[in-house]
Amino acid sequence: MEAAAGPVLYQKLLLWDPSLGSDEGEEEQEEETSELAASDPWRPQDSVGPGSGHPSGRSKFGGLPGAWARLVAALLLLAVGFSLAARQLYASGDGTGSQGSAAPRPGGHSHHPGVYHHGAIISPAATCSHLGRELLVAGGNVVDVGVGAALCLAVVHPHATGLGAMFWGLFHNSTSGRSTALTSGPAQTLAPGLGLPSALPALRLLHTHFGRLPWPRLLLGPATLAQEGFLVDTALAAALAARGTKGLCPLLCRTDGTPLRPGARATNPKLAGVLRTAALAPTPALAGDALLSLLLRDLGLQGTSSGPTPALEPAVQLAVPQGILSTTPSPSAGPELLAMLEAALHSGGPSPDPCPLLPQAPVTPVGSVLATIDSSGSVLLLTSSLNSSFGSGHLSPSTGVLLSNLVAQPTTSAWACPLILHGSPDDTEADVLGLVASGTPAVARVMTHALLSHLAGPQSQAQHQHQQGRTPSTSVCGQGTLLQVAVQSEHTHVSSVPSGCCTFQGF
Questions:
Q1: Is the CB of residue 314 less than 8 Å from the CB of residue 299?
Q2: Whole-angstrom Cα distance, residue 142 to residue 171?
Q3: CA quadruple 121, 442, 311, 165: dihedral positive or negative?
């Protein structure tokens, strides 16, 4: 199974691909190979030597001069290269919409940060963006990358997301031209004030239909981080300092009960056990069953609770002159978003103020977003929330899971409205744009403003800002995050607002 994922080095052996008719940029590719072949921090590396599988190899060639030894090694490497190149060409026929995800495209030029030939991921945690890139280089498609990164965020950002969170997603398949929404179903109550977890079955369902890598491969990195430890980043440390550690010790506390600071190492071995169990689940439903039974036992509840009801549904769509807009269905804020966009486009007027004055909400939703894209135009946007920072603050001792305080109310999914703009299924060369935001009760307006600004073009944006006396915003209504991914001229582009909030990785 490990060989199927393949060391990262194998991805670069395509320099022997017969379709590559030039050696231009060979030195640059060799340097890139060394960088990509760095040891995977989430799994042990195999040790392969020239005599592997051939017990007599050493005695036969050991006494030859160094030139012969180098020749033998070169021939073996060449054979492996042809074998892996053939396997990559076979993998490229996969129908998940990310055919190019199996191997990086060589090139002798560079790009600005955030622009890549092959694919990219952007997320709030550097560790998870790096893990996503490793999955991408290992042959995963955008669904593998997004699901793996989401599970990673469930470990390293427990203040914003986790296995107790509710997830919404939007996947555009560039091969079929179809957009599919991942819905967690209506928010359900596990116990008074505690939401029913739906993350594991929802993400497992998405992967079952559209993923390429084996499901256990996606949980390996997050489980290892939970077991062996991860470094507390600035975002988690700030959330701890603001909330306090009540109910979170010893998971996120020092021995004196004070919150962990940036750079401290945290572990969650119980959560690692849940992830390892989920890796063995043969179906999406069973992925969450073991977790649910442990939670019920922790809460002292008798009998069984009905499980979550995640589903894959056709995206809600709106045709516009520039293409087709897709988003998630109700009870998310997606339909509201499309209604606002339709009204603004028909009126021909300026985009709405993205930060209107709103009544003070009792709780500003705290959530997490990530986006993955490849150069073929396949996109996955994921957004999740525990509602409040650290959710309910109830830490399950048997699972290491923080339960959300999302309950069955009409506004529980107002934070969810990922948006993709793409051409018609017949226009395979059309550019693709993905937007996803979190952390603001005005998220639909923020998304409307961002899309209309994009459609207006750079000159119109500058003119509008001059007329309004504004400079480009550096935040989403003073809080939250807006991620943007796009494909233009067969290159992937990733960015965020505010620009320093999120880490992007790609190749």
A1: no
A2: 9
A3: positive
Tell me the CA distances in angstroms from 289 to 277, 283, 324, 431, one per residue in order: 10, 10, 38, 41
In single-letter form, the type of residue at position 185 comes to G
The residue type found at 123 is: S
Length of the chain in residues, anyone?
507
Instruction: Note the pLDDT tens digit of each residue in 211-236.
Output: 999 999 999 999 999 999 999 999 99
Quick one: which of 150, 104, 123, 112 has its CA closest to 374? 104
CA atoms 444, 446, 447, 448: torsion sign: positive
Confidence of residue 359 (pLDDT cuts 50, 70, 90): low
CB 252 within 8 A of CB 183: no
Is the pTM of the predicted complex or chain greater than 0.70?
A: yes
**Measured CA angle at 203 (ends 165, 496), to 5 deg:** 70
Query: Which residues fall within 8 angstroms of residue 202, CB to CB, at 6 or more apart?
Result: 167, 169, 182, 184, 284, 308, 310
Q: Which residue from 115, 149, 173 is spatially nearest to 494, judged by alpha carbons?
A: 115
